[in-house]
Design brief:
The complex is a heterodimer of chains A (300) and B (460).
Chain A lengths: L8 H4 L1 H28 L18 H7 L3 H33 L4 H11 L6 H11 L6 H10 L12 H26 L3 H9 L4 H12 L1 H17 L2 H6 L9 H10 L6 H32 L1
Helix pairs in contact in A: 2-14, 4-8, 4-11, 4-13, 5-8, 8-11, 11-14, 13-14
Chain B lengths: L2 H4 L3 H28 L10 E8 L2 H17 L3 E8 L5 H11 L5 E5 L17 H7 L17 H8 E2 L2 E2 L2 E2 L2 E3 L3 E5 H6 L8 H13 L5 E3 L7 H13 L7 H13 L8 H14 L14 H7 L6 E3 L5 H7 L5 E5 L12 E4 L1 E4 L7 H12 L1 H11 L17 H6 L4 E2 L30 H15 L2
Parallel strand pairs in B: 1-2, 1-3, 9-10, 12-14
Antiparallel strand pairs in B: 3-13, 4-5, 6-13, 7-12, 8-10, 8-11
Helix pairs in contact in B: 3-15, 9-11, 12-13
The chains are: A mainly alpha (300), B alpha/beta (460).
Chain lengths: 300, 460
Amino acid sequence: MPRCLFGTPRTRRFIPWASIAIPGLGWLLFGLYPSLATIVYSFTQYSGLPGTPLNFCGLCNYTNAFTALSSEVWSAIRVSIIYVVGVTIFQNAIGIGLALLLNRRGRSYAVYRALIFMPQIFSVAVVGAIFSLIFDPFTGPLDKLLHGAFGVTSTFLGSNQLALPLVMLVNVWMFSGYSMLIYIAGLRNIPSEVYEAASLDGAGRFRLFRNMTFPLLAPAFTVNMFLTVVGSLGEYALILVLSGGQHGTQTLGIYMFASAFNSGSAELGYGSMLAMLQFFLTLIVGGGVLWTLRRREVAL
Amino acid sequence: MDTSTSAPPPRRRRNAVRSVTAIAIAGACLATGLTACSSDGSGSGSKVTLTIGEWTNPGAIQFTEKLNAAFEKAHPGVTVKLQQAPTANNAWQQLTSTMLQSKTVDVLAQFAPTQQGFAPSYTSLQPGGIAALIAANKVVDLKDQPFMKNYDTTAQQAAIGYNGGIYGVMAAEYVSSGAIWYKKDLLAKYNLQVPSTFQEFLNDCATLKSKGITPIFAAGKDGFQGGIWQGIMNQTLMADHPAADSVKVSTDRATAFWQKTQSWNDPVYKTISQEYQQAAKYLEQGAAGVAQATAPGVWASQADNYPFLLDGSWDSATIQQANPKLNLGFFQMPGTNNASDNRMVVKPDLSWVVPTTSAHQDLAMQWLAFFSQPDNYKQWLQATGSVSTQPALTSTGLSWMDWLNTHSKDAFEQLTAPWVPAGASTDAGGPDLYKMTPMGKDSIDTVLKRSADAYQKAVK
């Protein structure tokens, strides 16, 4: 029987099946099973510790969320929406700006692009630790700078007014490079003839951007908007490291984490119910954004 | 010749040999792995591995490693493995869950649940964390173990007791509410004494401020200003009660809150909040943004300012590491103007438990007995700065613990908070000091009313 790199023809027949089965098994174990378990746990008062009873309570968690604890839930949803809107707008605006600025040939531009993308590869813990030190009102450089330049001081992440914008700022700083790369890919797909024709017609830079570049970036814009909305809705690690969810930074993700894990009275059952709410919120907001932007693409 | 039935062709034979060899190797690996895991010591010449799980606290970990080495020496054939993770960002809870799930831990450190962890059935609140494990009979009752005689039964019962059993050894307790580290030399420089009443404390702060010194340093970003409020509250509510009554006072208060005969709007909490404000105005500028990760080190390095640090008594190692030359002292902030009511408030902390899934329960008991020996326990106290939970051991000999050693006799267990369901807001658990002046902008009345409303709504 002839042999080749991947065994005999008989064994090769199984390669496609194995290629599907192995990741499929991984998805079943690490994707589907935890998701189904979360649905089940959301109907319990389960502590989350192995060996303890599930304590099925029907819809008790859902009922609590919209009666006794409704103010906490709605407050978390409100903060989540503010966070998503702020991060999405600024991250994409900065991403487009950087893409327009750095979409050039040359080694130095490659270095700039790499530098701007770099925060994306740092772990959230590292970024959180760096910015916690920068924002420390006692030892951090930012307070000294502010005090030296304007004679004012701030508690930064300890301020009820500033904590949320600052966490959003760090999020934008961390992920703008990623948005920039997608926009650069989009820009490179726009034929240069389009710009040449428009220039011959006398279009200035702003009109070129408004009437040519931005509409033709629609696919990249859709992808970026969707990824930013879904990513920032699910963000909790960065907020946890920076502010611990204090000072008005308790998003639904942080509230879920705190309810499920973060104290002696934490309850995975209630946390799982919040995870379900988060899922539906992502579905509605993310789905809505995708649907709207797809329609816009078609209209263009 | 029909080779298919008499003998396989060379290639197939080679494949068959390879398969058998692979299976044999895999089997050998599995057997080795299982032998390594197996631990009852019944196998011929097999080693026993006792696994200890403990969260990362430099002093405690250092001591445990030393103790484990001594235990291994005293028990030939036994290897003690230490598993650790920091408490930050849920890492310790993840490790705990993994070790329990895989049934690989024999002695596990847990925060004492106290009686707050076991709310009465009429509340419909289910226990969480270690309390859930105890209620589900997943932890061994240590009440009748000989080494438990070294410890104060009442304190152990309060910390980790349930239905008459004692499900762990509460090995450490710390002053947490109103705990104040101080710089002895700085107080001496301004002719100040350790205060014994709340007014004396305020007078000390006022004197220091008049000399250009900022009296109190605290990691407000992580809520350490709450130590002032909690300290005053504990001593106020426990005034005129014997120390042994603390569990009863806690339970009565929790019951009254649940039944809505008491609330955060009661006058006593207004008085406590007013006193909190009087002390909190002496905090460092920008306290709300200072993180606990840096606070002890920053405070220790500033020898000529900030005489007082609001921080738990567990942080001695961190402070001394940051400035070994610092002449360090510690006292409980006096919360009332009656010196005899200003007793030490201790909070149960690290407790060793033995899961019922442990494969080496006898060995685990031997390890706990070894840990509980007075000589070893004294070293534990010196390493961790814990207040002794063994009545026979009253002094650790550490210079910064002089105040603690002389006041530990009257100490009472920190009052626990009223029961609230999982997911309840911060406001329901007590006044949000970030929102109350001087850190926030809201008045005492506004903050207390918000807390009272949030609690009423949460337990509806």
